[in-house]
Amino acid sequence: MTDFVFLRPYLFVLFIPLLILFYYSSTKKIKQQSYISARLLTVLMKSEPRRSKINIPAVLFLFSCLIIIALAGPAIPKKTALVKSSTNTIILLGMDKTMHADDLKASRLALTKQKLIAYLEKNKATNTALIAFAGTAHIISPFTDDHGTLAHFVEALNPEVMPKPGSSVPDAVKLAGSLVTQLKPNSQVRLLLITDQLTVLQSEKIVNYLQPFNWPVDIVSVGTSTGSVVPLPEGGLLRTHTGQLIVAKTPLTVLTDAATKLKGKIIDINSLDHYLTDNQDNTTPKTTHETLVYTEIGYFVLLPLLLMSILFRRGYILCLLFLISVPEYSHAKDPALVLYEQGKYQQAAELFQNVIWKGNAMYRAGKFDAAISFYEKVNTDISNYNRGNALAHTGKIKEAILAYNHALQLNPELREARENKAILELWLKKQTPEDKDDAAIAALQNKDGNIEKALSFLKTLPEEPGDLMQKRLQLQQKNKSD
Questions:
Q1: Who contacts 239 (Cβ-Cβ below 8 Å, separation ≥6)?
Q2: What is the pLDDT of residues 421-453, one digit of tens each?
Q3: Cα–Cα distances in Å, from 55 out to 62, 63, 288, 318?
Q4: Of 18, 24, 171, 338, whose CB neighbour count within 10 A is largest?
Q5: Can you spell out the DSSP letters for 407-442?
Q6: What is the DSSP string of 275-296?
Q7: Does the model's pTM come out above 0.85?
Q8: In 10 A of CB 437, how many CB atoms?
Q9: Which residues contact 14 (CB under 8 A, 6 or more apart)?
Q10: Cα torsion angle, 334, 340, 342, 344, sign
Q11: What is the pLDDT of residues 312-322, one digit of tens each?
């Protein structure tokens, strides 16, 4: 194995202009010295010219060489063994409307998202799948070790994107069983059930279903036994169909009993982000693989150069070279993007230079015709996809389908456009002629952009992830029904 490498060897090309500059500087000085004889120069200056004991050009050349070497990134490679748990975790996340209850601050839903994302961040070595359930259960993500993507999915989830209200825990467990069939035989599996509801009958069903398997089920309880009323995002409180006010109480006794029968543990939502990190032991099978980690040492060269530069009258020049050679990682934030994130879409549209983002801002402001006019100015997969969304909102369903077709012609891998197109086509088939457009438009309401803040810097990605999540789950449910 190589003991010494350069991470940016292409920067050695800077030696070419440096050598040219040094050669030019040296020859120019010799020519200047030949214009006036040394004896005449002594008479004119009334003293013999002082000769510097330090060859400044040579020292600067040496310093410049060291700076280039430092910028080229000298590094020492080292093999590091990365440990990866061979346990496959399936997260079953409850998303009934009772998750809006505020007996936990700021709400059960907000706290659950916060703790679950922290859990994913601290357990990156685990192969994880995500299932969301309410009245129906849906696979949000198959097994993956990309916990950043899982965190984005968690942010986009909320009870409003689920096709049916309720808490069908048995359906979620059965769906988890279908995911396990994708794994190798005898794979280690652990279920993590996060819910604020569980009946005794549901507990018996999942215990009977999981009895043939050796999968421990840890249950995360969300909420308190005293409960609270459930404020809804659209206003008002959650009630039964008869108008009776619902007080969402978490059945801690039932959850604890179920966790014991399922060979798992009961976990309070407040300690979820610490749970598996603190409870992993040496008996859990793990796999390892080696990777090269580079320790860069180039910037250590620049520190003594900075100190040495003060020995020269023009040392500030070297100080400046040192400062500009250190990478700068701070980035100014786009004022238009700041206004956009603050919900000031009209003002953001005026400041955006990018046509698609002008359209996005007008789309968010509810000015769909104006958004369409911006999207029509460019012909990309994203602009056509966004144009299709805006057309659907204006009731031009067939034109929206054509826009999705254009997006797919440019990018056949644009899954969101394919799903949106399929949903509109399905509604066109199912609806009667007089209510086709109204039903399709109504289904494209209730926008949710929770992931948008996390992905705002990826300006080429489709927007409205929460909305896409809602349509995706609706389509899954429709396919199940058919």
A1: 245, 246
A2: 888 887 777 665 444 444 444 444 433 333 333
A3: 11, 12, 55, 16
A4: 171
A5: HHHH-TT-HHHHHHHHHHHHHHHHS-TTTHHHHHHH
A6: HHHHH--TTS-EEEEEEEEEEE
A7: no
A8: 18
A9: 68, 71
A10: positive
A11: 555 555 555 55
